[in-house]
Amino acid sequence: MDVHDLEFLQKQVQQLKDDGVYRKIPIIESANEAEVLIDGRKVINLCSNNYLGFANHPRLKKAAIEAIEKYGVGAGAVKTIVGNMDIHEQLEAELAKFKKEEAVMLFQSGFSCNAGVIQAITQAGDLIVSDELNHASIIDGTRLSRADRAVYKHSDMADLRRVLEEKREHYQQVLIITDGVFSMDGDIAHLPAIVDLAEEFKCLTYVDDAHGSGVLGESGRGTVDHFHLHGRIDFTIGTLSKAFGVIGGYVACRQVAKEWLAHRARPLLFSTYLPPAVVGALLEAVKMLNESEEYTKACWDNARYFKTKMSDAGFDIGHSQTPITPVFIFDEAKTMAFSKALLQEGVFVSPIIFPTVAKGKGRVRVMVTAIHTKEQLDKSVDAFVKIGKEMQII
Ligand SMILES: *Cc1c(COP(=O)(O)O)cnc(C)c1O
Question: Is the per-residue pLDDT at 330 higher than 80?
Answer without folding.
Answer: yes
